[in-house]
């Protein structure tokens, strides 16, 4: 198992159990205790968990803070890929789509790049991934945020108001019964506009995003036409009852 695969598995275990001994993690991942200790040290240095005597504890996610892009990119990878593959298979050639910032949306971009449609990118990684073959890419101007690479600010908002899209592929920091929310005010403003200028909004979110509320409201659930998530969530009963078109992959 490659280090990235081990790290992803460890974080999945920490999300499930919150606190684990090193030997328990080693047995579940199927590698030696020495290897796990090195992995735990690496993840601790990245701020993704905290070391304890003989094990590790999950770092409680703050709804007021945004994880760095590098940290987000290794979490819930299998779930993000499953979501992305479903969405990629349902994108229509010839359509115009807004690609939100974020790692789940980036996985979609990688799978549809080169096909004949128009993409409006809200961050640099998505724009770079999409700009091949027959895909027409429009990149908003504005401020590029450090460590996340999203594009925000008055320039972005002014340009977005002039555009119209068939579908907005939206990511989220948090989703609860009150709707979709974001830890960064500037990003939330861009997302709000993207919802307004799009005929349809699809929310792409792995199960770790549900049951939380971040600082800034983006939109209510009734402004989202479809939510695509994975099978790992234990907090979906309230979502099923909300009436939103829910796709679990």
Automatic annotation (TrEMBL):
Coiled coil: none annotated. Residues 3-58 form the HTH deoR-type domain. GO terms for molecular function: DNA binding; DNA-binding transcription factor activity. Pfam families: DeoRC, HTH_DeoR. Transmembrane segments: none annotated. Keywords: DNA-binding, Transcription, Transcription regulation. SUPFAM superfamilies: NagB/RpiA/CoA transferase-like, Winged helix' DNA-binding domain. It comes from the Bacteria. InterPro entries: Carb_Metab_HTH_regulators, DeoR-like_C, DeoR_HTH, NagB/RpiA_transferase-like, Tscrpt_reg_HTH_DeoR_CS, WH-like_DNA-bd_sf, WH_DNA-bd_sf. PANTHER family: AGA OPERON TRANSCRIPTIONAL REPRESSOR-RELATED, HTH-TYPE TRANSCRIPTIONAL REGULATOR SRLR-RELATED. This is DeoR family transcriptional regulator. It comes from Deinococcus aquiradiocola. The lineage of its organism: Bacteria, Thermotogati, Deinococcota, Deinococci, Deinococcales.
């Amino acid at each position: 198992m490659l280090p990235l695969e081990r790290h992803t598995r460890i974080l999945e275990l920490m999300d499930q159990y919150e606190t684990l001994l090193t030997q328990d993690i080693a047995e579940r991942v199927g590698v030696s205790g020495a290897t796990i200790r090195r992995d735990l040290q690496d993840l601790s240095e990245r701020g993704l968990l905290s070391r304890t005597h003989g094990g590790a504890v999950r770092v409680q996610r703050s709804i007021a803070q945004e994880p760095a892009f590098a940290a987000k990119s290794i979490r819930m990878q299998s779930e993000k890929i499953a979501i992305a593959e479903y969405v990629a298979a349902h994108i229509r050639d010839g359509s115009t789509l807004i690609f939100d910032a974020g790692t789940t949306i980036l996985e979609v971009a990688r799978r549809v790049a080169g096909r004949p449609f128009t993409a409006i990118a809200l961050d640099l990684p998505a724009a770079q991934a999409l700009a091949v073959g027959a895909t027409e890419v429009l990149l908003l101007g504005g401020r590029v945020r450090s460590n996340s690479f999203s594009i925000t600010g008055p320039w972005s908002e002014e340009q977005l108001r002039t555009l119209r899209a068939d579908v907005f592929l939206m990511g989220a920091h948090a989703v609860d019964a009150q709707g979709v929310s974001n830890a960064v005010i500037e990003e939330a403003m861009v997302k709000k506009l993207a919802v307004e200028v799009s005929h349809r909004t699809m929310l792409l979110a792995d199960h770790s995003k549900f049951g939380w509320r971040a600082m800034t409201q983006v939109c209510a659930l009734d402004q989202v036409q479809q939510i695509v998530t994975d099978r790992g969530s234990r907090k979906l009963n309230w979502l099923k009852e909300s009436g939103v078109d829910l796709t679990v992959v």
